[in-house]
Amino acid sequence: MLSMKTVYVGVYETWADWEIGHLLVELRTGRFTGEEWRVVTVGETVEPVVTMGGLRVVPEVALAEVSGGDLLVLAGSAQWDEGGGDGFVELARRFLAAGVPVAAICGATAGLARGGLLDERKHTSAVKEYLLGTGYAGGDNYVDARAVVDGDLITAGPDSPVQFARAVLSRLGLADEAKLEAYEGVFHRGDPAAYAGLVG
After folding, report:
1. Quick check: helix, strand or coil at residue 74?
2. How confident is the prediction along the chain (200 residues), in pLDDT tens digits per residue?
């Protein structure tokens, strides 16, 4: 029997819970992919944090305890615009160096930009100017798209949680393009006709 794969999810104060909700549900339940993943929350410490939506989350592990893993997911939060999150950037650096996918949305892309992780990779975010404000050197690799996959890096802006989920599921090979198109049809466009393609 194959062992369950693990996704580490960074959690921190003002973590933007809605940005990665679609993705985490699909990974954890496998309801449309047929593969369930283990979701593990990781914090700077194991002290509770409060999300932007007001949920109190107790990290299961601290950054220093993370080993292995099959995916790292980082959402936005105020910390990224305040220059914080260095520990999570270093974890992302470690994952990418090991060939493990890293998925970042909204403000987390600014953290990766400050850490130099977007300089040589195609990426997106809220707008190009937002990342240019970090002083990074990757402006020429910015792509104006809802979500971008470049090798093991997946990025998206804050208005694209469904496209973010779709891009990650695609990168992980968990669904074919027809099913992913149906997924976006249902959860982004509200197209009831797409549901049959999603569950079929």
Report:
1. strand
2. 458 999 999 999 999 999 999 999 999 999 999 999 999 999 999 999 999 999 999 999 999 999 889 999 999 999 999 999 999 999 999 999 999 999 999 999 999 999 999 999 999 999 999 999 999 999 999 999 999 999 999 999 999 999 999 999 999 999 999 999 999 999 999 999 999 999 98
Alpha carbons 25 and 29: distance in angstroms, whole number: 6
Catalytic residues: 106
Q: Which CATH number fits domain 6-175: 3.40.190.10, 3.40.50.880, 3.90.1150.10, 3.90.79.10?
A: 3.40.50.880
Tokens 């990342």 sit on residue = 131
10 Å Cβ neighbour count for 87? 17
Q: What token pair was written down for 181?
A: 């198109």
